[in-house]
Design goal:
Length: about 80
């Protein structure tokens, strides 16, 4: 079961995806990843990437899942 914070992160990512789905296919996933990389706190990005690997990842829109490889992991996790 997801916490309220996790639910909000998934909802926010899905809302961004819904907007980005109006863009041309080649721009949608990269635009979503760029937005998350530029505006989301490293803890938020880290948690989203974690949730995507868990069963909660099923709640993410396809475009969010497509953008995951381009979402930067916070520096502390890259070690």
């Amino acid at each position: 079961m997801m916490s309220n914070t996790d639910e909000r992160l998934v909802r926010m990512a899905n809302q961004i995806a819904l907007f980005m789905e109006t863009k041309p296919p080649g721009e949608a996933a990269s635009g979503l990843a760029s937005h998350i990389n530029d505006y989301w706190d490293p803890r938020m990005r880290s948690r989203l990437l974690f949730l995507a690997t868990e069963s909660e990842g099923d709640a993410l829109r396809a475009l969010v899942r497509e953008a995951l490889p381009a979402i930067r992991r916070p520096a502390a996790e890259r070690l």
